[in-house]
């Protein structure tokens, strides 16, 4: 069955992660995504290994395929075009004339000299939706700077609230373990493109979408930004604790760590009953979430020995039965062995053009009328030259 976006053609001029993550979303939903790559080299992430699904062979001029590349490029069609030449730029303009959407993530103005910027392409396709992803946007004092996820996590405040608090062992600002700014930016870009397509379908009018990593990082500060704007006090690092809820953090048990996620007063009282300390649930210092947050240090000091007295499995089973949210801290290997993850089909497999198997993570969306899949695989460099350019 065709996917819900099978009527769309996306021209993908992006590379690395934020742009490809966005366009992979469209490929997952059935759109034809044409990925333009540099001849001989391809997307930078083809070489970001090990591990490699296909080893590069520089002597044979084969770019290979790092596992990193597979996370953001499945289901796309690859064409190798050097658009820094007049002939290559002309080919890309021809492709743009047949596309609904163009996604690019070059520095501001970087495509103007090739005639591949929004103003140039709207001249050949007036209803084109054109999405530019940059570090800092199309205007402002930083607009000409390059932006990368790690530095944006720092500049945008995320690292100031991530890591152990000052005075604790290992205290320092930390980045998140995956490139969350790139990923969020990719999804904001995809949402913006869908909104622009809806506008185009109603009015016939295309438009330019400006998405910046720094803007997205500031937007995704969420409750931490709201806390600051309401109080004027900048939040700091709390390790695994939550600034607005308590107890909502990791605790050591007798044989490993447990995440305790108490979300309301009733859950806290049920936890105290299970822990054999009902008096804590009745203590006026901890009766409400507001009081527990205010008296966080005292409460956590009382809870730590209670949780350390029993093994993690006992706590998880007993607390789940009592309706108190909790869970383990799984390794990624544990994640893909988890029965819920297996049941939801989040690991999928495919075969590359040369027969090489490749494992991937499925798109998490579940549609009742237009179910997703079968899943496309990442393309080899220039795999679709004949199909696409032969048109």
From TrEMBL:
Tell me if Cytoplasm is a UniProt keyword of this record: no
Q: Is this entry keyworded Transferase?
A: yes
Keyword tags: Transferase
Q: Which GO terms describe its molecular function?
A: CoA-transferase activity
One Pfam entry name:
CoA_transf_3
Name under which the protein is recorded: CoA transferase
According to its UniProt entry, this protein's organism is Azospirillum thermophilum
Q: What is the lineage of its organism?
A: Bacteria, Pseudomonadati, Pseudomonadota, Alphaproteobacteria, Rhodospirillales
């Amino acid at each position: 069955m065709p996917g819900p976006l099978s009527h769309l053609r996306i021209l993908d001029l992006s590379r690395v992660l934020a742009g490809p993550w966005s366009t992979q979303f469209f490929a997952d939903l059935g759109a034809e995504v044409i990925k333009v790559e540099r001849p001989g080299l391809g997307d930078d992430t083809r070489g970001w290994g090990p591990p490699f699904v296909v080893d590069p062979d520089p002597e044979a001029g084969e770019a290979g395929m790092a596992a990193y590349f597979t996370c953001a490029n499945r289901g796309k069609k690859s064409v190798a075009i050097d658009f820094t030449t007049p002939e290559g730029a002309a080919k890309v303009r021809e492709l743009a004339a047949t596309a609904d959407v163009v996604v690019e993530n070059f520095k501001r103005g970087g495509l103007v000299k090739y005639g591949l910027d929004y103003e140039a392409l709207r001249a050949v396709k007036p209803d084109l939706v054109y999405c530019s992803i940059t570090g800092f946007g199309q205007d402002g004092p930083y607009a000409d700077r390059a932006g990368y996820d790690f530095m944006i996590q720092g500049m945008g405040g995320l690292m100031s609230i991530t890591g152990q608090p000052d005075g604790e062992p290992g205290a320092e600002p930390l980045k998140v373990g995956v490139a969350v700014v790139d990923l969020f930016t990719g999804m904001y870009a995809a949402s913006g493109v869908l909104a622009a397509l809806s506008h185009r379908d109603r009015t016939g009018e295309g438009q330019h979408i400006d998405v910046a990593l720094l803007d997205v990082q500031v937007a995704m500060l969420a409750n931490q930004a709201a806390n600051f704007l309401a109080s004027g006090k900048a939040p700091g690092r709390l390790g695994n604790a939550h600034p607005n809820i308590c107890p909502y953090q990791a605790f050591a048990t007798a044989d490993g760590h447990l995440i305790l996620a108490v979300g309301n007063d009733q859950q806290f009282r049920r936890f105290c009953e299970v822990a054999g300390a009902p008096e804590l649930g009745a203590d006026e210092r901890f009766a409400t979430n507001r009081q527990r947050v205010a008296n966080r240090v005292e409460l956590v000091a009382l809870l730590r020995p209670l949780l350390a007295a029993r093994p993690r499995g006992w706590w998880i089973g007993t607390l789940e039965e009592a309706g108190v949210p909790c869970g383990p801290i799984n390794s990624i290997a544990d994640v893909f062995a988890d029965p819920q993850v297996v049941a939801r089909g989040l690991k999928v497999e495919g075969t590359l053009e040369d027969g090489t198997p490749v494992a991937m993570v499925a798109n998490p969306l579940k549609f009742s009328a237009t179910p997703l899949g079968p899943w496309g695989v990442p393309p080899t460099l220039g795999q679709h030259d004949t199909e696409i350019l032969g048109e």
